Batch of 2 targets.
Target 1
Amino acid sequence: MAGDDAPRRYLLRTFGCQMNEHDSERIAGLLEADGLTPATNEDDADVIVLNTCCIREKADNRLYGTLGHLKSRKDARPALQIVVGGCLAQKDREVVRQRAPHVDVVLGTHNVHRAADLIRASREGRGPVTEILDAAVADDAVMFPSALPARREQGHAAWVSIQIGCDNACAFCIVPAVRGPEMSRPFNALIDEVRALAADGVSEITLLGQNVNSYGRDLTLTARRSGRDVAVRPLFADLLRAAGAVEGIRRIRFTSPHPKDLRPETIAAMAEVQAVCPHLHLPLQSGSDRVLAAMHRGYTAERYLQRLAAARAAIDDLAVTTDIIVGFPGETEADFTRTLEVAAEAEYDSAYTFIFSSRSGTEAADMLDQAVPADVVAERFERLRVVVEHSAVARHRARIGRMEEVTVEGPSGKDPSLLTGRTGQNKLIHFAAPTMIRSGAYATVRVTGAASHHLTGELVEVTVGPRHRTRIPVAMA
Ligand code: SF4
């Protein structure tokens, strides 16, 4: 907690996905632009911001548990401000107010740009403030947090939101209700932002959207064709190519593409643009056509596998990851067996496997009469884990002996005598290095070991500057 003259301090906790982490960077940037500084812990904080997620029920429980614990702090120190933002605030603003009346500010997903103003207004005497924008507003700075100031966790890497909302209607998902319909950020504004990030020393960007492959469906650009101006729709592939041409951008990642919208143009851009990382996160959700139809996913298992095969055939050394839900209402043993078969055939590098969690406001919440018993779900979850780990370990072992280009992230959390980095395939690698290497540097690392969730290795050389301008060989002790 700051003294009278010291700058006020904020603590930010993020629940949920990368979109939320990206919003949190923007909230932190706005608060710091307003004169606040980061706190190290709750005792030290004048403002505590909880940026929430509503994808899973556990997230609700964690939020209300945290708010309950913060109530005693607020009772002891009434000047402490508690702020709830994010998807849960957008969806359940009244519930947050009723269950936690000690919260000072509730702000929605479309109000990120107002965070500092609302915190100040509440402090200056307006008391508790709730502000939620329900409708999408065609204002870049309002709708796309990328257009706001940010406090980036890693100087060399940045998220770029290219799209908000989602036009799909997956039966288990609350996102369309919370984030609204899809809206693509204008193409030229995005490329300008990528250029500005590169000028600021960023070499790796991650393009963010709920369904990046449908980027541009709502945009029109003017292009010169056969000597005249014509209106064209930009594709996600065009964005990959344009971002990949920006000087200084060495790695491009993106998340998440919907399998039904994975176009050949995207696969071709991934294969041809050197900066696009050889990693595709392609959510399967289920291997059963019956369950996929009930989920409204818009593809069959066979179609999914065909697209995956096309991507693997075109893109050299492609890593593939996925999301799978176990225990969707009505999932039978035969359905689940199909999921195991498809997962085995896909040979994933890793998978985020989730136990189905019902969210009120989704179609699946009305299907609970078909709920799969918890013990059956737990047993299926374990069987799926074994299948995924089998392919993950095999694919990781196949990399032993290879040279990997790695972005250095810093000392390993588990063993500070090692450094941690990310390969182009987005694999975590812990490696021995004779000297400290700054975070954000690129290095060549020889892979010496493999586990299901990471690789181990040893440093070969550090590369300086964009795209291997200088190589500094390193002699290992
Ligand atoms: S594609 Fe489906 S799972 Fe993804 S955000 Fe849209 S509705 Fe949710």
Target 2
Amino acid sequence: MFRETRTVAQLKTQLVDVEAQISVLRAEQHVLVNELDRAQAPQTDASRSMVDWVQAHLDVKRDTARDLVFAARRFGHHRGIHGRMLNGDATFDRTIAAVKLADAGATEGDVEESYRRDLAGVARMLGHTKHVTSQDERQIFADRFFTIQPNLDESRYRMWGEAPGVVGRTIGKAICERADEFHRIAGDLPTSRGQRQLDALTAIAQDSLDGATSHESTSPQVTVFVDARQDNPTETTAEVEYGPRVGPDALERILCTGRVRVVGLDTNGVPVVTSPLGRAIPSAVRHTVARRDGVCVIDGCTSRYRLQPHHIIRYADGGTHHPDNLATICWFHHHIAIHQDGYRIDPDSPPLRRRLIRGSPRGPDPP
Ligand SMILES: [Zn+2]
Ligand SMILES: [Zn+2]
């Protein structure tokens, strides 16, 4: 049994027909992706964005995922273009090109004209058409949003949004400038651009909460619950009252900066020991240390941004509030490098040229 031989013309017709069917299916995917986007699907798993989510779940290339999400978000604004694809009259790639052209402010006539050109020709048209109409501007403005949402136990937050160009540039510039500042401060500490940008956003938020002129972070008075049955209470997770669960690093940070009360719980969750509020560094000591150091004491750092005293020997390891055990360090070195990235101050380094070293304070010192 042999298939009847098909002519090139027949094969071509069939090939084009299959592509049209693919396009119809793609158009249906746009509707689904649009609904998933509105349902904030990326939050249901570890995806950072809708593009990540589509890429992971469809097992497609990133460019394909990006085009799918782009079209899904834009088809509502270009129903004619999308309808053409839904009818099998335009391919996926053609539709993306036409939507981009329409988004760039091309007239309906120009978009129509683009269907008579090859895709490279449409790309050239796009280059010549970059102007945004006031109607587009209003739509872009109306589409603006920012969302920040915690996961169930509030150990992680996810944030995303969309902004008009000018707003995006303002936000981007503020974050980039602050991130670059941290990049200079960070020196040899390995941080990624993404990490620095989040650190920058955190600092900007902290400025807003504390007042931009304040040099010292004010942290709220918090109650931390620890498991009192354990020999080493800092190794357990703690719960800040009415707040997110925190790990041992965050706990140590709170002990370092905050006005804090620590409550130890027994097996039944009954408080068996409560620390006095005086556990935070007394303000006379804070002032003495601040005047003595004047600037971040980490070698090479000249930052005066949110200078704070930090315990060289951790409080949990028996370190005291004596000025000799306190070093003034900037927000970046304090919150990012030490309390979150796990560096610590080398106690043997000179008082005004402190070195950061890796490793557990309880383990042996590196040679
Ligand atoms: Zn500290
Ligand atoms: Zn510093």
